[in-house]
Amino acid sequence: MLIRFSVPFCSPAAARPLPLTFHRAFDMVHDPAVALETLVSLGFERVLTSGCDSSALEGLPVIKRLIDQAKGRIIVMPGGGITERNLQRILEGSGAEEFHCSARSSRDSAMKFRNTCVTMGATISAPEYGLKVADVSKVRSLNAIAKNTL
């Protein structure tokens, strides 16, 4: 099993011999083309990006341009809102060979006592009684889609 660390604002030299992925903090840059060159010069192995948009699907044109610009010097890994419904389109439209997604589903918390008078956030629903967990069936489905696409 290969373990990768995604650490924003960390020098790759400090993490050697581990490879580093620059996190989606990249999506906040003013000029993604310039920022990509900076990451290449610093020695990052990959960059996780939604194409500087709210999701990888919406940022697909930028992701494609970044992959073309990278020319194999750094891996541009789409991430953000990737699901079974859009993975094939993202991989085919970008030319990416890697992707990142949570592949999560929701399940009810095992908490026994629930205070229905209090919510811990600004939402009407009570997220404190729900959990997001990795979903093995989604991982398998996404893996199959990737294998058929790449």
Automatic annotation (TrEMBL):
Lineage runs: Eukaryota, Metazoa, Chordata, Craniata, Vertebrata
Family matches, as SUPFAM superfamilies: CutC-like (SSF110395)
The record's comment on protein family reads: Belongs to the CutC family.
What InterPro entries does the entry give?
CutC-like, CutC-like_dom_sf
Cleavable signal peptide: none
The protein depicted here goes by the name Copper homeostasis protein cutC homolog
